[in-house]
Design a protein that fits this description.
Number of helices: 9
Order of helices and strands: HHHEEHEEHHHHH
Radius of gyration: 18 Å
Shape: globular
Number of strands: 4
Largest sheet: 2 strands, antiparallel
Distance between the termini: 28 Å
Strand content: 5-15%
Amino acid sequence: MRNPDYLAAELLDLFTETKDKSYYEAAQAILDDEEPDLRRVPMTRYFFGAYERLDDALSLLRSRDLVRITGIKGANNKVLETDFVLTKTGYETCSTAVSQEPILQWYADRAKLVAKVAGTMGGTALKQKQYQRASYAETKLGGVIPAITEDVRLRLTQLQSD
């Protein structure tokens, strides 16, 4: 969602695998709507992939009781797993948000598209998939993961002529 050009690239991968034209059309729409320019939120590459401190965003959601944060800790109180649970208040807020502010529909649509691309893969498998892209894998530690919009645009053109 934060890197629409990477989402478009994944959609083109699915189109290539399945020949389902809806994946191609979704990728095309992302570029036609200029999402890589207008909606990109850069992320830094850290030791285990894209990284951003979640404290600020989560503190806002937690302070409004929209989410609860739980998890499993192991030896030395080391966090092994973190779960973010949507509360009843959070669910109600999400359920009414789009009707109150229709512009938020984009987030709901993109979340569905991202979930469709992710399928049954977990975080580790998704991270490994991202590292298959050279631009992502070759980003220096602490560097901003670069845009791949032009590569995706070129690929759309090539697939259209096939």
